[in-house]
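step 4 of 6: structure.
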Amino acid sequence: MSANMGADAAVPALETIGLSKYFGTVIALKDVTLRLMPGEVMCLLGDNGAGKSTLIKTLSGVHRPDAGAYRVNGVAVQFASPRDALAHGIATVYQDLAMIPLMSIARNFFLGSEPTIGRGLLRRFDVKRASQIARDELAKMGIDIRDPEQAVGTLSGGERQSVAIARAVYFGAKVLILDEPTSALGVKQAGTVLRYIARARASGVAVIFITHNPHHAYPIGDTFTILKRGRTIGTYTKADLTRDEMIRLMSGGDELDALEHELRTIGV
Amino acid sequence: MIPENNLKPSPDFTAAPDERLRRESGLRKLLRRPELGAVGGAVLVWLFFAIVAGDRGFLTLRGTANYLEVAAELGILAVGVALLMIAGEFDLSVGSVIGGAGMITAILSVELGWNIWAAIAVSLLASLAIGAINGVLVNRTRLPSFIITLATLFIVRGLTVGITRLITGRTQIGGLDAVPGFDSAAAVFASAWGIVDPTSARGVTANFSVSILWWAIAAAIATYVLLRTRPGNWIFGIGGDENAARGVGVPVARMRVALFMVTAFSAWLVATIQVLSSGGADTLRGEGREFYAIIAVVIGGTLLTGGYGSAIGAVFGALIFGMVQQGIVFTGVDSDWFLMFMGTMLIIAVLVNNFIRKQAAEAK
């Protein structure tokens, strides 16, 4: 893969080269290199403590990188805040804080980006339009909501994630970062979320999908990036990687082999 | 800015009609409103005193004006506190701000001979500054606002007493009615409409205080802001989940400072009404008001942890408060029982609200 293609060739939706992040003396990320094309799902794989959270937070504007290049649509960016990142089309959906349970679906959908009507002092939150758009957008995504005024707390976990994804796509996300959206879900609900990811991809959105579950990652992923101890140790396309190889990489690969060997010697 | 109409429909997909769609009954919709408990409670309290003390003046126009005035002074405060509490924060300093703001107005006008409007303006600025300091401290220290404002409660009260004594040697200042500008200020903050009670044979006049109007205006603005503006939606979001709100770009820190300034503004308005209707200030004014305001807000259905509630609820919470406080006087029972009654009301309100909220959250 050539790193420097012509202007006509596709520009990566998101690209980092040698991205590093330090917290005092701790090296949280070192030389992280990612390349994500529009309409591509990249699965970000790695054990606990591999730096996935730090990487997501750095990409989404929560942390500022200490070194390296970060480009969005080929333009170098430096985000001051998550809002700034959002304005550049980088939307992050966190697993646990995707939605506010006591607020209605419509109010959640537009939180932070409420449609308004009127001018000056009379500029107000267009509640009617918010409900209408929320209902229509979710229907388009095939999300089965009964009433946009109902509290998000009444939705299932999968529905909540789906509403969050629909919201990000509606607000023009070019890159969608999904932090373990399926980890707390049952099989059927996880399937629902994967379907929405596929739909987002079909509309040209680039997706970074973080998961621990190889059975969720493999069917939807186009590329697979392994993060280990704060470094990227490789990016594989689906053609390069069988499901079994991926499972091996995800579960620690060689370390697990060593462990298996060790256990066997103890057992015998 | 984020494009608002960046629609990306998937043409291959159309929504199937939801077979689980069920028409929601009007009752269920009503149950979702946070203030329902307080409205019901207000009706019950009114009925109770109408039966127990109806023949002793509770039902007269004068009795009504009486408890509405008490409710108004608490209600103005409670409406501001409700906005802050929905955003998940407490302000215990409002009682002290009432004392401090009143004293600033009194010292500047009576002792220094300022026009009272200028004195009122300075006390407003001082109150807003205290609110802003509360907000900035909560943002910077990340300590619970309960602790921060507990500290400012004592600091502001201490400053008020200390400075007042230093300047005047006293803790009370009277004679505001003689300072320049008093009449026009009193007309705005402390006038009343006298209405002759048609049912009374002796032609008793009931005086409806202008503070009731201020209360209504405060409640109307707060309700409008909460339900029909972007900052209103942010208030619910911040109270519901601060990090989620920040994640979608809500300016959490700025909103918080603004909301502490709103509660300080409410305290200033109460102080100004009190100073102009009594013609004097006392360093201890407003003591305990912070807790009464919280009680009114909680009775009004606002969740202590934030994210849920209404300004209308706080209005009815304050109304219950006013009716109980004045109603007890009408019954002839010793008013010492008032505090016990309010405490009991608080417990009942919290239990009822929890139940209602559970119903609302599970109403599928």
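step 5 of 6: annotate
 - Chain B touches chain A through 47 residues (CB under 8 Å).
 - The first helix of chain B runs from residue 26 to 31.
step 6 of 6: archive
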